[in-house]
UniProtKB/TrEMBL annotation:
This is galacturonan 1,4-alpha-galacturonidase. Its EC number is 3.2.1.67. One of its GO terms (biological process) is cell wall organization. It is found in: Secreted. It comes from Mycena pura.
C-alpha cells in the first residue's frame, strides 16, 4: 500500500469529531487507482478518503488539493496499498488518524499540516487538554515514510505503537507558533513496544523530544534536531528499551542532547534500558549535552545497562557539560564515556556523576562519583 503526499493536508482537528458525513467524490472507486477531489470549504473529506483507501490500491491527492480532515479516521487492516498520507492516538494521548497494516509506503514530497496553532492556544488555557497526534502507526509492519514534511502538530508528530520494521527517511518536521503560546510536547517521534525502527536523514525543529524511544532495535542517524529519551512513566507497566543506536546527530539551542531519562518515585512503572549507543553528536548551546536523569534521591524502578556515550563534542549553555545521575542501589551498570570534547559557555567545564563507576577514556573527567 502506498500513500503519496504531493499536496497540503489540512487537519481541522478542533472541528467536531463527529460531523455529519458529506457526499463522496472519489473517482474510480474499486479500481487500481483513485483520485480524490476536495468537497469544498468547510466540508469534511474524511469519509471519501476512507472509502478510497479501502477500495483502491493507489490513492492520489493532486498537488493543488487540500483535504479537510474533520472526523477521526481508522485505517487499520490495509495491505499492499499506495496512499497519500496522515494521523492517530495512544495511552493518555489521543490520535486523530490511525494507519496500520502490512507493506505501507507514505511518500510524495507533500506537507501534512496538523493545524496546531488552535491547540497551542487552547492548551495554554487548559493543561489537561488532550491533543491529537499527527500520524500514528498502529500495529503496522513493513512501513516506509519518506520525503514528506509535517508542520505544526498539536502534540507528537509521529507515534509508532507496536510496530515492526518501520522506517522514516528524509522527513522534515517543524512546529512554530504565531502567538505567545508556543508548541508543547511536539515530539518528533515516539515509539512504544515496537521493534526495528529506523529514523534517518531528517530535520526537526520542535518544542520537545526529537525522538523518545520505548522500543527495541532502534537506529537513529543523520538528524538535525532537539531531543531526549524517557522510559517507565506508567505505574504497573514494565517497558524495555534495548539495542538503540543514535549516530551523527546535530543539535543546537536544545535543552538536552544525548539523554536517558527514567521516571522514578511512587506511582510509576519499571523497565530496563540496555545496549544504548550515542555516537558522533555535535552540539551547540545545549543545556545538558550528556545526561542520565534517573533521580539521585531514591531507587528508580528501571535498570540502565551497557550504555556508551562516544565522540560527543560541542558547547553547553551552563558550566555543567555532562551529568550522569543514577539512582542508588546499583540501578546503573557498565556506563561508558569516550572521547568527550565539551565546553561550557564560559569558565571551566564541570562533569558530574552520582551512584555509578564510569568506564572509558573520558571517565577521568568526572572524578569520583558522588554517592547518595
Amino acid at each position: 500500500m502506498r500513500l503519496t503526499i504531493d499536496f497540503l493536508l489540512g487537519l481541522s482537528a478542533l472541528q467536531s469529531a463527529f460531523a455529519h458525513a458529506p457526499s463522496r467524490t472519489v473517482q474510480n472507486v474499486g479500481r487500481a487507482s483513485c483520485t480524490l477531489t476536495a468537497l469544498g470549504s468547510g466540508k469534511d473529506d474524511s469519509p471519501q478518503f476512507l472509502t478510497a483507501m479501502q477500495a483502491c490500491s493507489t490513492v492520489v491527492i493532486p498537488a493543488t488539493t487540500t483535504l479537510n480532515i474533520s472526523t477521526r479516521l481508522n485505517m487499520t487492516g490495509l495491505t499492499n496499498k499506495h496512499l497519500n498520507a496522515f494521523p492517530f492516538a495512544f495511552q493518555t494521548s489521543i490520535t486523530f488518524w490511525i494507519l496500520g497494516g502490512t507493506n505501507i509506503v507514505v511518500d510524495g514530497g507533500g506537507t501534512i499540516d496538523g493545524a496546531g496553532q488552535a491547540w497551542y492556544d487552547a492548551f495554554a488555557k487548559s493543561s489537561s487538554l488532550l491533543r491529537p497526534i499527527t500520524m500514528t502507526l498502529f500495529q503496522a509492519t513493513n512501513v516506509l515514510v519518506q520525503n514528506i514534511k509535517m508542520i505544526n502538530s498539536p502534540i507528537w508528530f509521529n507515534f509508532v505503537n507496536e510496530g515492526k520494521n518501520v522506517t522514516f527517511n528524509n522527513v522534515t518536521l517543524n512546529a512554530a507558533s504565531t502567538s505567545s503560546n508556543g508548541p508543547a510536547n511536539t515530539d518528533g517521534w515516539d515509539t512504544y513496544r515496537s521493534d526495528t525502527v529506523f529514523i534517518t536523514n531528517s530535520v526537526i525543529n520542535n518544542g520537545d523530544d526529537c525522538a523518545a524511544k520505548d522500543s527495541t532495535n532502534i537506529f537513529v542517524a543523520n538528524l538535525n534536531c532537539t531531543g531526549s529519551q524517557s522510559l517507565g512513566q506508567f505505574a504497573g507497566m514494565f517497558d524495555i528499551v534495548e539495542n538503540v543506536t543514535a549516530t551523527n546527530i546535530h543539535m543546537s539551542n536544545a535543552q538536552n542532547g544525548a539523554r536517558i531519562k527514567c521516571w522514578a518515585g511512587s506511582g510509576v512503572g519499571s523497565g530496563i534500558v540496555k545496549n544504548i549507543t550515542f555516537n558522533g553528536f555535535i552540539e551547540s548551546k545545549v543545556d545538558n549535552p550528556v545526561i542520565i536523569d534517573q533521580c539521585a534521591s531514591f531507587p528508580s524502578n528501571t535498570l540502565i545497562q551497557d550504555v556508551f556515550f562516544n565522540n560527543i563534542s560541542g558547547t553547553s549553555t551552563g558550566s555543567t557539560v555532562a551529568n550522569v545521575g543514577c539512582s542508588p542501589d546499583g540501578r546503573c551498570s557498565d556506563i561508558n564515556v569516550n572521547n568527550l570534547n565539551l565546553a561550557p559557555s564560559s569558565g571551566t567545564a564541570k562533569f558530574t556523576c552520582q551512584n555509578i563507576k564510569l568506564a572509558g577514556n573520558s571517565a577521568s573527567l568526572f572524578g569520583t562519583c558522588a554517592t547518595t
